[in-house]
């Protein structure tokens, strides 16, 4: 029996005429059976676990996700029925319809807001989804084709496999900080060869590289930074950014605790700061207060402006090389082609970066829902104002990979007193999906530190 797209005839039913002598077909069948097994776990997860909070920002996004899950389930059932039926035609048509009309379009709708590193995942998911649509359309034209039936069935499973790999990496603490991206890429490199052979991965890698080269040459610095930043499923930060921020906070603590540092030579001063990075305890102050203290600590000439040179010197002293600075776009993110920044500029950049980046110290773990919501609220309230403003909501949404412009609508939906901000009571009453998800994320990631 032919197992490629040139097949014009397939023996029926498919289940009785699988060519187990073919290593390629055997591999595809084993992946298919494992996919069906994992479907059970993934569906159990979906029906017992609330959606990620990003799907509650817009009602349309949540409805599309529900359509995506339903159409995917129906497509899988139709594919299985077609595999075992004496006449697979009607089931093949049903599977193709669920895929081409509902599942593929709903996937394309969600791709721009995918978590993880968009530079890898958007092009690769786009390619796999296009393949899914291609196979579904060809299944309509060739409803008795085993190749198109199995290929349609396999390409619909990229998310199921990503959940399996994510759980595996989480269990063994692998790829921390990049777990979602690693899981999606692993599932892609497994499924693409199962439908296109080994040349599929070469095509996938080539497509991702070409897409990113084009976007890098046409996009802005801000776009490229967001495009290459990990957007974790949890409320977590980039580990490398966390190291830098911890070093900055330590600089503030040491500068305030040891006044003599302010009159020492910069090299000695930075060396002493960096020597205490791993041992200093964070002061219980708001991110904006930390930011201003940090600014004073690294503003060597005390002119109330921070130069590129001053900031570079400090990062180098923290162990960040010049190459890494450029690679992580740290300087561009703060200075944006300016030679100096003011204290306000630095504080705005720091508080934006600080959210979700540091551990949270509490006397004891809150035991009530209200206490847990307050802990999350205080973490998101970067400037310590007692309310979440538009900038803080923008930071929250963009950390999930969502468009910044959705924050205004989200604020309007939850700002019941029309004050222009979200106070704690509004947060507790109307944003339960956020704080319940966040508190569990804090626990899972070990971000909550009980003070002794």
TrEMBL record:
Keyword Calcium: yes
Annotated InterPro entries: EF-hand-dom_pair (IPR011992), EF_Hand_1_Ca_BS (IPR018247), EF_hand_dom (IPR002048)
GO molecular function: calcium ion binding
The EF-hand domain, residue ranges: 286-321, 368-403, 412-437
Gene3D superfamilies: EF-hand
Keywords tagged on the record: Calcium, Membrane, Transmembrane, Transmembrane helix
Transmembrane segments: 30-47, 67-85, 91-108, 120-141, 147-170
CDD domains: EFh
PROSITE patterns tied to this protein: EF_HAND_1, EF_HAND_2
Name recorded for this polypeptide: EF-hand
Organism in which the protein naturally occurs: Linnemannia elongata AG-77
Lineage: Eukaryota, Fungi, Fungi incertae sedis, Mucoromycota, Mortierellomycotina
